[in-house]
Amino acid sequence: MAKHPVPKKKVSKSRRDIRRAAVSTLTAPTLIKCANCGAQIPPHTVCPSCGYYGGKQILEIEA
Ligand SMILES: [Zn+2]
């Protein structure tokens, strides 16, 4: 008897690639568009380019 986990069936190339693609969507960086200036920023962060968050200017951005 095998003492370690052994897959019962070989995973097809297509199944393997589908699984890897699913993982990459979870680990890929999520970016949203800033509602004020349209910059690509992570969600729930103050926009570093215009300083807006939730429709208000949070940071003073020096031009
Ligand atoms: Zn912005």
Automatic annotation (TrEMBL):
Keywords: Ribonucleoprotein, Ribosomal protein
Organism (species): Meiothermus granaticius NBRC 107808
Pfam families: Ribosomal_L32p (PF01783)
GO cellular-component term (any): large ribosomal subunit
Recorded GO MF terms: structural constituent of ribosome
Ribosomal protein is among the record's keywords: yes
Protein name: Large ribosomal subunit protein bL32
HAMAP family membership: Ribosomal_bL32
Assigned protein family: Belongs to the bacterial ribosomal protein bL32 family.
Keyword Ribonucleoprotein among record annotations: yes
GO biological process: translation
